[in-house]
Structures are given as structure tokens and as C-alpha cells.
Amino acid sequence: MAAQDFNLLLATDSYKITHYKQYPPNVSKIYSYFECRRKKASQFSEVVFFGLQYLLKKYLIGQVVTEEKIQEAKLFYQMHFRQTVFDEESWRKILEKHDGRLPIRIKAVPEGRIIPRGNVLFTVENTDPEFYWLTNYIETMLVQMWYPITVATISREFKKILAKHLKATSGSLEGLDLKLHDFGYRGVSSQESAALGGAAHLVNFCSTDTVAGLLMAQRYYGCPMAGFSIPAAEHSTIISWGRGREKEAFERVLDQFSSGPVSVVSDSYDIFNACKHIWGDKLKERVMERSQDSCLVIRPDSGDPAETLIEVIKILEECFGCSLNSMGYKVLPSYLRIIQGDGIDLCSVDEILQKLSDEGWSAENIFFGCGSALLQKLNRDTLNCAFKCSYVETNGKGMDVYKQPVTDPTKGSKRGQLSLRRNSDGCLETIERGAGKPEEDLLVTVFENGSLVQDYSLEEIRKNARLQDEEVPTLHNREQEPLHIINGIH
Q1: pLDDT, tens digit (0-9, with 9 covering 90-100), for 254-285
Q2: Does the chain have fewer CB atoms within 10 Å around its N or its C terminus?
Q3: Whether this model's pTM surpasses 0.90
């Protein structure tokens, strides 16, 4: 659906259009909030807040209510419910009184901020007492924030793992931003998922093939080019030469991309034979002619990732030699690297890098690509995202409201108007029941009465999300050995 054809009145769970009949009489305000609930023993203790600006810019700013859209919704809901329950009159009042702009205020944490789970991330309230029901009408759309938040969070967890191993085995974090490549475009459910998830990954890394994510970062977050890629082969470009001409297929890639890095998938038939007898023998001189700026990146794509990589890197060591870095770990020649994109998730990356370091190899040697584990193998319950009403005003009196199900205490909700502050210990905490001090509140008004109030750039968001030194876990290092050359080859 084109943006101009989008009808906000139809962008909600259909049962919500009946809620104006269900609230208590004389309600004038509904106030709700969004959080990622805290869960014991969860894999993730904190989240990266990202993606709200896109939803606001694309779907909520400006005139979103028109007479044509009211009539479309009226007809649709009449057929859907088979009775007249659509509040045509109220929507027309929004059109007449507010020029079709939503009388809503949204306050949120700055995008890119790292927030411990269990804290408020954004709040929503109506600014015109006549349209109290709007707050939770738009819940359906706003809760879809779970997706970019979850992808940005998982991507950052990858970054922590990669930083840990890279720092321990190389002594620095140089090149970290390129260590995880987004391979997920084809594996997601839609173009919009690719855009949201791809952009969420770009909060933490600068390496991607997901064009939709780059375009979203460009159009909605002011970044001309947020990520980078290199020419790469796929199986079709290799096997189209026929099994007996794999060497010619590889050589063609080297010829066509003689400058700049290039990635070649090498497991179409036998990855070990390809590394030992084609790359390491027949094309050895061609490979060695390349430089660090034009390195060959060999891509295995099947088998057990850790076992395959260890065998591949040993073969490449035999053929091309290696050196020891300042931390005493082995590094392939600068013109040769490996990328693993099959079977990659948070657990396997940690396992692979641990096994490689146990074998004496630096994380400098390898890049990773990730598809479904980054953009698709997740859902709203991954971070337990929830949107709940916490405060109402009726007959001019405010009341803190909450849910507290006896069967599941973890689903209890917060009470009253909320604020987020940093306490005396430096920790973030949510203040309930309207007890927070406005000057301490970290929630920022981002949307009010149809207008975007705050516009974040991707550059700002990346600064908010950057890893702090204390977030890079330590890994036991082998005893440092003096830098020297093995097999006489750099």
C-alpha cells in the first residue's frame, strides 16, 4: 500500500473501534505506556530503543483523517461487524476540529539509548479530552515497535560478543563495525520488515546487503549511506560454469574485481578441496597478488560452522602461511580473510570464536554474516513487549490504574503517570504514580498534535548505542608472544 493510500482508521485491531462505547462515562484522558517487561533468567537484560521515528514520520504526522478515509472505514466496519459500531461522528470531529491531525502526545526515550528491561520506553496520551479513546486506538501500530527494538538489541548483543573476542585476540576493536554483515533481506516477511530490521542492525554495524534498511536510514534518519558491502559471488554464479570448471569460475571473479575486496562462496562442491587445490595451489599466485585493500574473502556455507572454519583456516595456513599479532594470535596474510554466514546466531558466533582462539587464531581472520537469527527468528515475546493503560481522568479526577493477574505476577503493569530518571546510583529507573520530577525525566516529547517534535539522525542514535569499555567482556588471553612470521610469509 502506498503511503498516501494508508488509512489510519483501518490500522488497528478491529475490536478497538468498539472501545469508545466501553470506557466509563465522562472519561477525558487515557494515558498508556510501552515497555519491555523484565523476565528472570532472560537472555537479554537491556534493550536498544529504535524505530519510533520511522512509524511517526510514515504513518502519524500531518493530516491522517480525511472524509474519504472516514467513509472507507465506515463501509468496511459495517461489513466486518454486520452492525453499526464505527464512531463516524468522532472521527469527523477530529477532521473538523484538528484538521485531521491526531490530538495525541508521545514522549519517549531518545532513540539509540540502552535501557534496562522493565522501564518505560514511551508514553501516549490524548491532548483533547473529547478524544480519550485515541490513545489505545493507535496501540496496534505502536506495539509493532517490538520488531526494530528487538533487532537492534540482538545486533548489539552480537557486537558485545565480537568485541570481546576481537579485543582479547587482537588487542583492539579496529574493524568491529564491519564484523557482522546483514544477510537477512530475503529471509524476512516483507519489504517493510527488511527496512525496519535492516536499519535497526545499522544502529550497531556498518555492514549490510539489505538495501531496504539503507533506504530507511536515508529517508527517515538523515544518513546518506549507513552501510557498505563488497562484490560477492553466490552459488549460481559458480555452478553455472559446471562442476569441472570451478577454478575458472573463481578466476573470473578475481579478474572482474581486481581491486577492492571480493567474497567468493567456495563450498559448491568441496570447500576443503577448493581451499587447498584451487585457492591454495592453482590460483595461489593470483591470491597473493592481492592486497589488504583488495583481499579475497572465502565463504564456506555448509557443514558445522566451527569445525568447517577450523579446517578451512588450517588449510589456508598451510598454503599461505600466517603471522602472530601483538597478542600472540595467528593471523592470515592481509590479502586473505574468511566470512561465515551459515548457521550463525549469538551462541554459534561465541562458540566459533572461542574455538578459533583456543586453536590460537585471532578474530581478525573472520567476518560473519547473519540472516534469520538477526531479522526473523524473533517475536514480540523475545523481549516481552507490552503496551498498557496506567492512568485515566474521569469527571476531572485522575486515577492510577493497573492490571495484576493472580495467575501471572510478571504481567502486572505500572501505575499512574510515568517518568524515567537516573537515580543516585547512576541506574535508570521508572518512577510511577506521577511522583517523578519533570527536570529529571529522560522521556522527551517526540510527537504532539500531528507534528514531529524531535528528529534524530542515525549519527546521534549510533552515539547513544555505542559500546562502552565496561560493556566489553573480558576473555582469558594466552600468554603474549613476540610478533614474528610463521613459514616466512606475512
Answers
A1: 999 999 999 999 999 999 999 999 999 999 99
A2: N
A3: yes
Per the CB < 8 A criterion, the answer to whether 42 and 150 are in contact is: no
- Provide the pLDDT for residue 476: 55
For residue 156 the three cell numbers come to: 548489539
Of 369, 355, 360, the closest CA to residue 158 belongs to 369
Cell of 229: 558491502
Q: Residue range 204-218: average pLDDT?
A: 98
- Give me the chain's average pLDDT, please: 95
In angstroms, the first-to-last Cα distance of the chain is 55
563495525: which residue's cell? 177
Which stretch of DSSP H or E encloses residue 153? helix 146-170
Q: How far is CA 80 from CA 71, 74, 76, 105, 153, in A?
A: 14, 10, 6, 30, 38
Position of cell 548457521?
343
Query: What residue type is assigned to position 156 of the chain?
Result: R
- Please name which of 227, 300, 231 lies closest in space to residue 262, comparing C-alpha atoms: 231
At residue 479 the predicted structure's pLDDT band, cuts being 50, 70 and 90, is very low
Q: How many CA atoms lie within 13 A of 62 on its CB side?
A: 9
Going by C-alpha positions, the residue among 416, 367, 369, 408 that lies closest to residue 391 is 416
